[in-house]
Each structure stands twice: as structure tokens, then as C-alpha cells.
Amino acid sequence: NYSCDDANECNDGTHMCDVKRACQNTRGSYYCDNCTSGYINNGNFSCYDFDECSYSHNCSPLRACTNTIGSYRCDDCPFGYTNSGDYNCSDINECQQNTSRCDTLRTCYNTIGGYGCSDCPLGYMNSDPFDCNDVDECSLKIDNCSPLRKCNNSIGWYSCSDCPK
């Protein structure tokens, strides 16, 4: 017999292809296919991790991208948002979900990524972004009682005593 048999390096394990590159036998030799998704060819045989976060990824601008070996993941959305699928964020409506801290005298209004509370009604003042405190119109001397009538503060308002007899 004057012919030679081809040694199949892919089958006999003598090839040098990275596990992320398939070995393809050729007559008298072999070659390594391109690296699997998430990796880049490094020479003829090996692969290295492709950092999708530095080049191209689908994470929302609100979600940080974290590179992983062979892939990437999108971190959780910030406060005021909820994860929407693997890549996006959706606004949480704290008012509809009754999770706002607005005083019962104040109306909650949704904003993108948060919420706000309306001003307190007449007779109250905003004590912080969420709560109301009674205004003591009598001690602040902002009542409309005549000098002969005594001012009586009440929660949310005031009254004037009867005129003297």
C-alpha cells in the first residue's frame, strides 16, 4: 500500500483548539472554528472573553452592565424603578401602589423614578416633603378675630369666641 491515512487530530485529541472552538479535520491537518458567542478568537487556537459591557450590550441606561465570562448581565434598576425583563426598567407608581409616605392631607403625584406630595391644605403647613403640621393661627397672630374676641386654635383651623356681653 503506497497511500497514507489521514490522522484525525480532532478525534484522537491531539489538536490544540480551545474548548470554545470546534475542531475541524482537514486532509493532513485541522483548523479551529471561530469561538462561541461571547468570546473572541485569540490566534489560531484559543479564545478570550469579549467584554460586551465595554462595546455593545442591551442594558437600559438605568441598569449598569456587568461583564461575565462569555456573556454579561444587567444589574437591578435603581430605587423608584422595577426590572422589566432582562434589560429594561419600568417606573414604579408609588401613588397607585400606596407605598408613598404622603400625609393623608396631601395628594401623592407620580414622577418618573419617584413621587411627590402636594402642599398641605389651608390651616396646615408642610413640615417636610411628606407631612403636615397644624398652623396655630392664634399664637402666630394671623387670625382675623377682633381684639375683643379670643382666638381658639383647633386642628386645621381656628375660631373666635363670642363677643363679650
Task: Give the helix/strand layout.
Blueprint: H1 9-12, E1 23-26, E2 29-32, E3 39-42, E4 46-49, H2 52-55, E5 65-68, E6 71-74, E7 81-84, E8 88-91, E9 108-111, E10 114-117, E11 124-126, E12 132-134, E13 151-154, E14 157-160
Antiparallel strand pairs: 1-2, 3-4, 5-6, 7-8, 9-10, 11-12, 13-14
Describe the protein.
This protein is mainly β and 165 residues long. Helices cover 5% and strands 33% of the residues. The chain has helices spanning 9-12, 52-55, and strands at 23-26, 29-32, 39-42, 46-49, 65-68, 71-74, 81-84, 88-91, 108-111, 114-117, 124-126, 132-134, 151-154, 157-160. Strand 3 and strand 4 form a beta hairpin.
Which short descriptors sum up this protein?
rod-shaped; two-stranded antiparallel ribbon; about 160 residues; mainly beta
Summarize the structure.
With 165 residues, this protein is mostly beta strands. It is 5% helix and 33% strand.
How many helices? The count is 2
Oligomer: single chain
End-to-end Cα distance: 139 Å
Number of DSSP E strands: 14
What percent of the residues sit in helical stretches (DSSP H or I)? under 10%
Give the helices and strands as they follow along the chain. Answer: HEEEEHEEEEEEEEEE
- Beta-strand percent range: 25-35%
Based on Cα principal axes, name the global outline: rod-shaped
Parts with pLDDT < 50 across at least 5 consecutive residues? none
Mean pLDDT: 93
Major β-sheet annotation? 2 strands, antiparallel
Placed side by side, the strands forming the largest sheet appear as 1-2
Radius of gyration: 36 Å
Main structural class:
mainly beta
